[in-house]
Amino acid sequence: MAAPKDPRPCSIADTLAVVGEKYSLLVLREVCLGNGRFDQLVRNIGAPRDILAARLRRLVEAGVLTKRAYSEHPQRFDYRPTAAGLELEPVLMALKEWGDRHLRHNTDLPMAMEHSCGHELVPVVTCRACGSPVHHDDLTAHPQTPGWTVRGPAATS
Amino acid sequence: MAAPKDPRPCSIADTLAVVGEKYSLLVLREVCLGNGRFDQLVRNIGAPRDILAARLRRLVEAGVLTKRAYSEHPQRFDYRPTAAGLELEPVLMALKEWGDRHLRHNTDLPMAMEHSCGHELVPVVTCRACGSPVHHDDLTAHPQTPGWTVRGPAATS
DNA sequence: GGAGGTGGGTTTGATTTTCCAACTCACAGG
DNA sequence: CCTGTGAGTTGGAAAATCAAACCCACCTCC
Fold it and tell me: What range(s) does the HTH hxlR-type domain occupy (chains A, B) (predicted)?
């Protein structure tokens, strides 16, 4: 039934609809670092204030962030990650790791992330079942949406 | 040093400058699935053709994809991931996992990814040094760029 | 009690992107 | 010759982004 023009139903696309707009993941980065105030976010991200306000509204409504008053009189707010927001950290780690490896050759040193085991964190994606690092060739995709194959929409009559 | 308005130097931001525009990661998804032809990408992603063309140029120039002629006469091309492109798959896996868990409650079944160990893939980010799954509280950030702290730009004189 | 500063935004208007449909060009098949 | 396919490009309307200015409640300093 997949009408012409419907894209592939996909959790990647759905997740990007939530956090894929410009600056959204940088907001999450700062908030995970503990920098949840509006002006900190503006400075550290470099986003226009109006856009940032829009992103914050969206992320709160999506359940990724919560807005909390850290002071009444004067009313002052900050933003903190929800449990769901913290579960997006693997996305940040994967992006950081790629950038560290491929982009950071002529620039400053990357931000160091120290793991509680005492070593510098190098994130590795592993298979929960067998524990081994996941390699592209080890994967086989099986679409489960009727009307869709790996290649695209099933041939329509 | 850290002039007003300079954002935090960061590999996450740098990586997003390469693959963070709308549709770029969906292009990578399709290309990793083996769907590298222009019309397949248009159908499966649902992107406007002109935007898609722009994204493909950018991803090729950034070294994430290669453009290859799979036929001369008529000239026909497809796009495939480079080694660097394949290394972005952890980002896709992390996005997919989050969407599967948080967004896919009233919708179709998610795409199943079968790992070569025989089980359904559930990606887990682990620390390469100690092998244990990474949890937010186990991390401590140490900026290494002069003029920057975790909180933001260092107090200027 | 006025002057200035801070935090958390909103408003305004110019600039950029995105979107969509239509178009092109080269070839292939019947 | 007529139609179809693959891989885009073109043109103009609609939407998002940008930068800077503005706002308002409160606080501190003098």
Answer: 10-107
Distances (CA, A) of A105 to A101, A109, B17, B64: 8, 9, 16, 17
**Backbone dihedral region for residue A63 (phi beyond 0: left; psi -120 to 50: alpha; all else: beta):** left
pLDDT digits (tens, 9 = 90+) for A81-94: 999 999 999 999 99
Strand D positions closer than 7 A to protein CB:
5-11, 16-21, 25-27
Among B5, B10, B37, B150, pick the best mutation site for testing chain A contact (most A Cβ within 10 A).
B10
Ramachandran angles phi, psi of B133, nearest 5°: -60, 140
CB proximity list for B32: less than 8 A, separation 6 or greater? A136, B81, B85, B86, B89, B92
Considering only residues 101 to 130 of chain A, which have any Cβ-Cβ distance to chain B shorter than 8 Å?
101-104, 107-130
Check whether A1 has a pLDDT greater than 80: no
Task: Summarize the confidence of residues B22-48 as an average pLDDT.
Answer: 98
Which domains does chain B carry?
A: 10-87 (1.10.10.10), 93-157 (no CATH)
Q: Is the pLDDT of residue B157 over 90?
A: no
Position B60, amino acid: V
